[in-house]
Amino acid sequence: MRISADRRCRSDQSPLLDRRGGPKGRGGCSIEFLNNHPGCGCAAAAPPVQEGRSFGFAVALAIALMSLTACRQKMADQPAYRPLQPSASFSDGTSARLFPAGTIARGSIPVAKDIGEEATLPYALTREVLERGKNRFNIFCSPCHGEAGDAQGIIVLRGLRHGPPSFHIDRLRQAPLGHFVDVISNGFGGMADYSVQISYRDRWAVAAYIRVLQYSQYSPIGNLPAAERQRLEAEP
Ligand code: HEC
Hints:
The chain is an all-alpha fold. The chain has helices spanning 2-12, 31-36, 47-76, 110-114, 127-140, 142-145, 154-157, 170-174, 177-186, 200-217, 226-234.
C-alpha cells in the first residue's frame, strides 16, 4: 500500500517540483497536491532520499548505457564505407571506385560457353601461334593425349581406363577447329574443361596445333608443296 502510494506521488507529479511555482507544503509538496492526496506518503517518505536514489539509479543507468553504446560502436560503426557513401578520400568525393576500363566480370565471356563449332581461328595463323599451341598442348594435353595426339599419353600408359580417343580418327580429323576449342572450354564427357588453365586466345592456338598433329600423320596430298608431291609420286 505504502509503496503504491509513494509511486502514485512520484508519478502524479513530483511533490518536489511545483513547476508552476505554487506554494509548497510538507516536504516540498504543493499544497494543492497534498489536499488532493491526503493519505499520500510522499512528503513523509523523505523526498531528498528519493532524489538521491533516483540520482544514483540514473548514474548507474547512464554507465550501463555508455558501455552498451561502446559495444555498438565497435560492432556496427566500423571504419568502412558503404557503397555510394560520400568520402573525402578521393577527389571525386565518392568512396566507391570505378572499375578500370576494360574490366570483365568473371564468367561473363560468352564465347567460352557458346563457342560455335564452325568458328575459325579469330586471328592470323603464324608460326608463333603454332609454337604457343604446341607449348600449351604438351603441358596440359599430352599427359593423356600423347605428344603425337595418338592417345598414348603417360597417364593412359599407366592404366587410365576409358582413355581419350586418338586425334587421328576420321571423325576428329574432320572436326572443325571450333570443336577443339569447345572441348577445352567446356570439357567433354569424362574429360574436364581447361578453361581456367588455358586462355581463350591460347585455346585456339592449341586447336591449331592439334590440326598440325593430325596433318603430321595424315595429310591430303594436295597439301604438300609441289616438289614434295613429285618426289612422292615418283616413288614406286
Ligand atoms: C587427364 C586426361 C586428359 C587430359 C589432360 C586432356 N584430355 Fe582430352 N580427353 C580425355 C578423355 C578421357 C577423353 C574422352 C572423354 C569421353 O569421351 O568421355 C578426352 C577427349 C578429348 C577430345 C575428343 C572429343 C570428341 O569429340 O570425342 C578432344 C578433342 C580433347 N580431349 C582435347 C583435349 C585437349 C585439347 C586437352 C588439353 C587442353 C585435353 N584434351 C586434355 C582426357 C584428357
